[in-house]
Amino acid sequence: MDVYLLLIGDEILLGQVVDTNSAWLGQQLALHGYRVAGKMAVPDARADILEALDLAAGRAQIVITTGGLGPTKDDITRGALAEYFGSALAFHQETYDRIAAYFARIGKPLPESARLQATLPEKATLLTNKVGSAPGMWFERDGKVFVSLPGVPFEMQYLMTEEVLPRLRERFPGRPLAHRTLRTAGEGESTIAKRLEAFEEALPPHIRLAYLPSLGQVRLRLTGAWPHADLPPDADERLHTEVEEYAHRLRALLPDLVYGAEEDTLEQVVGRLLQERGLIFGSAESCTGGYVAHLITSVAGSSKYFAGSVIAYSNDLKIKLLGVRAETLKRFGAVSEETVREMVAGALDTLGVDVALSVSGIAGPGGGTPEKPVGTVWLAVGDRTRIVAQKHVFARDRIKNIQLAAIFGLNTVRKFLLNAL
Amino acid sequence: MDVYLLLIGDEILLGQVVDTNSAWLGQQLALHGYRVAGKMAVPDARADILEALDLAAGRAQIVITTGGLGPTKDDITRGALAEYFGSALAFHQETYDRIAAYFARIGKPLPESARLQATLPEKATLLTNKVGSAPGMWFERDGKVFVSLPGVPFEMQYLMTEEVLPRLRERFPGRPLAHRTLRTAGEGESTIAKRLEAFEEALPPHIRLAYLPSLGQVRLRLTGAWPHADLPPDADERLHTEVEEYAHRLRALLPDLVYGAEEDTLEQVVGRLLQERGLIFGSAESCTGGYVAHLITSVAGSSKYFAGSVIAYSNDLKIKLLGVRAETLKRFGAVSEETVREMVAGALDTLGVDVALSVSGIAGPGGGTPEKPVGTVWLAVGDRTRIVAQKHVFARDRIKNIQLAAIFGLNTVRKFLLNAL
């Protein structure tokens, strides 16, 4: 089933906002068995919107528009839709009351523009927006569905998840689909693909494996589609069980790389492991400059297992706060196995934590040498009984080198906690 | 002059990548006086690409495509363009040699696919890509220009800046334009707009002011367009001078908010001020969890003015490493003026720095109380002679509260260094 996306708004064409909506929609629709056949962005102009609706309807059974539902006079999507569907615009008291209640709840005065936002095409089935003011709209014509959603990402996502996807499923019932995503860190797509060659070849045709890479991480998504035309009542369950079994096999093939599933993040998984073990964590950071601590504390509730960190950018602070010996720095340098080992020992002591990670490296662009090029990073993790150190060379720009050092560092903490180092 | 953007690639429609290219292109083109009339994304499919080229050519004088120039068999843009322009594909030795030299330079073996990437439509004017393998292409037909660029953002940006924009300027010489962007932090768009009402009203019609907001910051961009049909030789210079004068007035109207111009970031500006004064900085962070230190150290060369930080998430570490008195924490709480003041004094001491920033707050989603709701943040900045403290309430989600606290914190450091607090 094909979907065409229509993004409405001058701000998209002017480049004032990065369009994250269509990537989110593309992913969600793919997960539910729909294919985005194309997308188009048009300005806030009546003629452009009408023409684009025609073009989109010619290419897909489902047309989803985002944007142009706001409270200002630039927001003309409501009027354009009314015209396209030959429908009058009418004031909708219920929507007005809901917008009024919404503003009361967030403690803001009801703007005059609420009347405009509650003036809607009569032919629209309204989709209740519980997280904002503009309702979504659903139209049908000639067997095709047109959905209009606000452009604000979290409002669009709310309406898509709560209203649109369930309705689409009902309107166009398809074959059951099942997904399972595993998350890996520490290796690239091509290395993983080599290790999974036999697994991929042995996959039945109705189960596919997709690689979704991001910085230092790769998500592996298995998608199963019910393979027969006949649909037993337990088809959904059987398909899910089958995909789940393949996910188990996949996990067993990559025990060193898989850290979680679905929406897990590395920092959440590390936090969970610490909490389960009743351990308190801290970091001693040089080149990452606090980025490890930032990732850990971006998780709500991290105060239960994170005490704090020492960011020792200067050698003086490595000596003073982490007890690194001046002799070590002089002999081996700040970016060395010896230094990161002493940094861990010092962090355990200074921060009074059970487990500590240390990172020292050359983020760049300056500071590299032939022996230690830009991107060279030493990291160590340890507790009071053992310390493990590793060297990596990330040949990226400064920001990515910092981010990769933090991701590899957290992954090393995870493995240390699992006794897998 | 209108431009139509064509994004080619399945990965965009599947949502596997967020399309940041078109926002960048929209901004750059706007800066040079071009208007993006629309954009369309199509899959890696011959028929879709050909149809989209026709549609785009019907709507603009300039068509820019990105993507589909890679080395795999999915990348069919070269072939589609050859067909569209009725041109043969031919092996181009010079491009092949350049790709070979590029791979030698980055120390990687030359892949077989280099032959494919060097097989190009004969009618194309090639645009040399010095930062990657795929060259850009320039075609003309019926007075319209078609440009094909790789989808990798930094390669696309390089070719656009170095090759495409200068050629467009020559091919379609327009009236001179001049831009000046000022960067502000600490107030929202509507507050700033109120303060600039008189300024905006007095602007001549050929000079416009745009508000470009992001988290905690607003960029103000002045754009001047030469107002007459006659073009004296010094038109460009006169226009730049005029825009510059308005930028001076603007800056004078918002002395407390403007921190820089053009591509300046707050962390760069703070770094520059510290370096000019020969001062060393450090931070004492609770709720920001290292994010201030991360921003500061994301700037290359920050080791010249940044020594390190204490991330004291637990009260124990606030006491032990920052010398905050247990009595203070008990009586006023960790999120209080008293605590952040003691944190600054402690940081100056422990880190041995000249200037320190401290931050303590409730990032959320838990931990709020009626007196101190989620988003309440106390921050203090000081040296050995004075400490200034401020309270803010950011009613956003956890990550945004952390980011806003860091941005407001850095802005406070900036003002402290300028004696403007």
Describe the structure.
The structure is a homodimer of 421-residue chains. The first copy, chain A, has 16 helices and 17 strands. The first copy, chain A, is an alpha/beta fold. The first copy, chain A, folds into three domains: 2-171, Molybdenum Cofactor Biosythetic Enzyme, Chain A (3-Layer(aba) Sandwich); 177-261, Alpha-Beta Plaits (2-Layer Sandwich); 266-417, CinA-like (Maf protein, Alpha-Beta Complex). In chain A, the strands form four sheets. Chain A has a six-stranded mixed beta sheet, sandwiched between helices. The model of chain A has no long low-confidence stretch (mean pLDDT 94). Chains A and B meet through helix 2, strand 2, helix 12, strand 14 and helix 13 of A and helix 2, strand 2, helix 12, strand 14 and helix 13 of B.
The CATH topology annotation of the largest domain in chain A reads as: Molybdenum Cofactor Biosythetic Enzyme, Chain A
Mean pLDDT of chain A: 94
Low-confidence stretches of chain A: none
**Radius of gyration over C-alpha positions of chain A, nearest whole angstrom:** 27 Å
